[in-house]
Specification:
The complex is a heterodimer of chains A (about 140) and B (about 150). Chain A is of the alpha+beta class and about 140 residues long. Chain A contains three helices and six strands. Chain B is flat. The chains are: A alpha+beta (about 140), B alpha+beta (about 150).
Chain lengths: ~140, ~150
């Protein structure tokens, strides 16, 4: 094993009805390919885990903490599942995402770097630092 | 992937990554303190399986054969996912209540609460087919093991 640094990425799979209209043969191929893809990534140590999400869920928002049904069950944007990747760099994460067997049937894969620190927490710290240095000046 | 349908795990997807805009330093500090306290309390109760913020840069990959790669998502939007938290909860109701307790909601964050599954719903719609695929994978295992060795 080399000592190259690794970076974590999340693949978000969007679209949850792309199986509609596929023939049994197409379905069989995509199921086989997807399972083999996942198992191979795990065996290579590039995928720490992944799960599908149930289609029904709720969305909470606002000061009143309103609970609404969602996301929309049949949507190209809805997140259907995710893989957690540990790879060398963004290019490797993108290359892996491009192998997703659902792509040819309309699935979309979002590739996002996992951050060490929340950007809002970072900004909060920056603000207070700036304020402290302003107070000293 | 196993065939269980429930995992007892729920994911909270936090949408709207710029809720801090327009808050004063004091307000932001108070909000962060409340948020950290919310998180720590859940962590102490053993409810948190994992949580990460996501970086603003990303790519969207799509397309039938050309498989194009575009910049995105646009993390300035209220819909973009800014981070996630995986909960271990007794029920969907408990996960939902935990989500409702998040202090950033009042600043415009929205939280999607979704049960995590062991089996993909798309695969679950075609159980016979998945069974056949798994059977043939089991038969092919010796060959795969040889390849991996």
């Amino acid at each position: 094993m080399s000592t190259t640094t690794t970076t974590d990425y999340l693949l978000l799979f969007r679209g949850n009805v792309w199986d509609r209209g596929l023939s049994p043969a197409q379905l069989q191929k995509v199921v086989t390919d997807w399972m083999a893809w996942f198992e191979q990534l795990k065996a290579e140590g590039k995928c720490a885990g992944g799960h599908p999400l149930e289609e029904q869920g709720k969305v909470v928002s606002g000061k009143q903490r309103i609970v609404a049904d969602g996301p929309f069950a049949e949507s190209k944007e809805a997140i259907g599942g995710y893989f957690y990747l540990t790879v060398a760099d963004e290019n490797e994460a993108i290359e892996i995402a491009k192998q997703c067997p659902g792509l040819q049937y309309g699935s979309v894969v979002e590739v996002r770097p996992v951050a060490d620190i929340c950007s809002i927490k970072q900004r909060a710290e920056d603000y207070s630092k700036r304020e402290l240095s302003g107070a000293r000046a | 992937m196993n065939t269980e349908t429930t995992t007892g795990e729920y994911i909270l997807l936090f949408r709207g990554a710029h809720w801090d805009r327009g808050l004063s330093t004091d307000e932001l500090q108070q909000a962060m303190d409340k948020l950290m306290a919310w998180f720590e309390e859940l962590n102490e109760r053993g409810k948190i399986k994992g949580a990460q913020p996501l970086g603003g840069q990303g790519r969207m990959i799509a397309g039938t054969d050309s498989r194009f790669v575009v910049d995105g998502p646009f993390t300035e939007t209220k819909e973009a996912v800014g981070g996630y938290l995986v909960l271990q909860a007794d029920s969907f109701g408990e996960a939902l209540e935990i989500g409702r307790g998040n202090p950033a909601l009042r600043y415009g964050v929205s939280i999607e609460v979704r049960p995590i599954l062991a089996e993909c719903p798309i695969f679950a719609r075609h159980p016979e087919l998945v069974r056949r695929v798994k059977e043939s994978a089991t038969q092919a295992e010796p060959a795969l093991a040889e390849l991996a060795a």
